[in-house]
Design brief:
The structure holds 2 protein chains of 2 kinds. Chain A is an alpha/beta fold. Chain A contains 11 helices and 11 strands. In chain A, the strands form 2 sheets. Chain A has a 6-stranded mixed sheet with strand order 7-8-9-4-10-11. In chain A, strands 1, 2, 3, 5 and 6 form a 5-stranded antiparallel sheet that branches. In chain A, strand 8, helix 8 and strand 9 form a beta-alpha-beta unit. Chain B has a two-stranded antiparallel ribbon with strand order 1-2. The relative contact order of chain B is 0.15. Classes of the chains: A alpha/beta, B mainly alpha.
């Protein structure tokens, strides 16, 4: 009930939002009637205990659940008020507009340059344009200075934190409107984590960010809005500062104070 | 003093050492016998001349050329066929029982005795498709022999590509076709090559499949086209040991031929391993 009210109130500001989204893996329902708005040029954090469906929800926004044959979806995901689950949708275009960075850094076994250029190459962009975009993307991901002299080195020669920023640069090269981050720092050391968090705050001037995190403190540090999920339902959505100080729902309060997780 | 458990450990490790030694001994003995009997036969003229006087003199050059072409052409047929079959099996084939059925068929094919491939090749390529006894007919027969190994190796190689790469590619807006061709296949290539290397050795050394499809007992001429029949190294050994009346002169030539065949397979494998190493160098994950 709380959710519905929010989505109606803020409908005009939401860059991407869901409308009564339900998802099943075979018989098991993983998402139950989720309504969430993701606001333009803000950082929204998805938090909740393991298995609550937050990663699954994230993967609905670029249709990555399509890769799982057992997945079945009911409801809408509206990107600029267009349902991306409409049968006429070009999925590759959706995924270009909605970039994604995964939990574990997953660069391709290619050179640094070719990793960034990949998204552009599959769309057949011109060489001169690709070179230009590779540079700006690496700069935007704060990686340019570290790799500019070895763009032809293997991406695996980079450290874990650098690899993750490479993955962010790779997603940025597609010039996305929205960036989905699926626990992007859970495999990284504290320093690399801090750098990625700072980067998020910088990037939100250019793109809308939706981040899944199991780290409550991280959500508090970088997000403008937070959604708390529990057992497939979105329990509470609101401005982070407000939710962290006065949560409306008892379950949110319990989770934030570390009663369960 | 050793405790009982230490003694068992001692016994176990030394038993393993013994088994390794036995295995190594066979390999060394094998190489020693072949090379000591045939090594001195291998001279420049042996490699570059045609046989003379009903194979009791001269070299084996036509057989080297024949084996080279049979191997190259059969791999050129089997490699793309096997890789694309594996791609289909891994990425597209549905439902599960169909994939299973194909796999059983492939594994059965792998277990068929090679002489039966020879008969099959004769019936289909030589007679039905009218290729006659030729390099082409022999290559197709050998390709079918190599196919199961290449399919199995390719399928395993494709399946071992981390799922992360596939997701990363799809998330960047690539289609499934682009993901397979630009990410999955290049990543799997070194392991596919391993399977191919194994097949090269097998194909180059097989006698039975080419017996009725490609090989000729004796010719002084090199093949002019893929429609010609050829001499081949393994069949040449067989012929030297079973035909003719001058065993004293023929047997050393047979061992010399064996040395050349072994060396040829070794060289091809080494080249393939170098290529694989170069591809692999930049692909660690």
């Amino acid at each position: 009930m709380v959710n519905e009210k929010i989505s109606r109130e803020n409908l005009e500001f939401a860059h991407i939002r869901t409308e009564n989204l339900n998802l099943w893996f075979s018989e098991k329902q993983v998402l139950i009637n989720v309504n969430i708005p993701i606001y333009d040029k803000k950082v929204t954090a998805l938090i909740g205990p393991s298995g609550c469906g937050k990663s699954t929800l994230l993967r609905c926004f670029n249709r990555m659940n399509d890769l799982i044959p057992e997945a079945r979806i009911k409801g809408k995901v509206l990107l600029n008020e267009q349902n991306i689950y409409d049968s006429r949708t070009d999925v590759t275009k959706v995924r270009t507009k909605v970039g994604m960075v995964f939990q574990r850094p997953n660069p391709f076994p290619k050179t640094i340059f070719n990793n960034i250029a990949y998204g552009l190459k599959v769309r057949g962009e011109k060489k001169s344009y690709i070179e230009e975009v590779v540079e700006t993307s690496l700069k935007n991901a704060w990686l340019w200075d570290e790799v500019k002299d070895r763009l032809n080195a293997s991406a695996f020669s980079l450290s874990g934190g650098q690899q993750q920023r490479l993955c962010i640069a790779r997603a940025l090269a597609n010039n996305p409107d929205i960036l989905l981050l699926d626990e992007p720092t859970s495999a990284l050391d504290p320093q690399s984590t801090a750098k990625i968090e700072e980067l998020c705050l910088e990037l939100k001037n250019k793109v809308t960010i939706l981040i899944v995190t199991h780290n409550i403190a991280q959500a508090g540090r970088i997000s403008d809005y937070t959604a708390f999920m529990y057992l497939g339902e979105m329990v509470e959505f609101g401005a982070t500062r407000k939710m962290f100080t006065v949560p409306k729902d008892k379950r949110t309060e319990a989770y934030l104070s570390g009663v369960f997780g | 003093m050793m405790t009982k458990r230490e003694f068992k450990q001692f016994l176990g490790v030394n038993a393993l050492r013994l088994f390794i030694a036995i295995t190594a001994m066979f390999l060394i003995l094998f190489l020693y016998v072949i090379f000591s009997k045939g090594g001195k036969m291998v001279t420049w003229s042996f490699l570059t001349e045609s046989p003379r006087k009903f194979m009791t003199e001269g070299g084996i050059f036509p057989a080297i050329v024949g084996t080279f072409w049979l191997t190259v052409i059969s791999i050129a047929i089997a490699l793309p066929l096997g890789v694309f079959t594996a791609i289909y099996m891994v990425n597209y084939a549905k439902p599960a029982w169909f994939v299973k059925a194909v796999r059983i068929a492939v594994n059965t094919l792998a277990g068929v005795p090679s002489i039966i491939y020879g008969l099959f090749g004769m019936a289909v390529f030589v007679q039905l498709l009218r290729m006659d006894v030729s390099i082409l007919a022999g290559s197709f027969t050998l390709a079918i022999l190599a196919l199961p190994v290449i399919i199995n190796a390719s399928e395993e190689a494709l399946r071992s590509v981390p799922h992360d790469f596939r997701e990363a590619s799809m998330a960047l807006g690539a289609t499934e076709r682009q993901t397979i061709l630009r990410v999955i296949l290049p990543t799997a290539l070194p392991n596919i090559l391993t399977g191919t290397i194994i097949s090269i050795g097998r194909v180059a050394g097989e006698t039975a499949p080419i017996l009725f499809t490609a090989a000729t007992f004796y010719t002084r001429h090199l093949p002019n086209s893929v429609m010609d029949e050829v001499m081949a190294l393994p069949y040449h050994i067989y012929a030297l040991m079973t035909e003719g009346a001058h065993a004293d002169k023929q047997v050393p030539i047979a061992y010399g031929t064996a040395v050349v065949l072994l060396a040829l397979v070794l060289i091809v494998s080494t080249v393939a391993i170098i290529i694989r190493y170069k591809i692999r160098k930049n692909r660690k994950w």
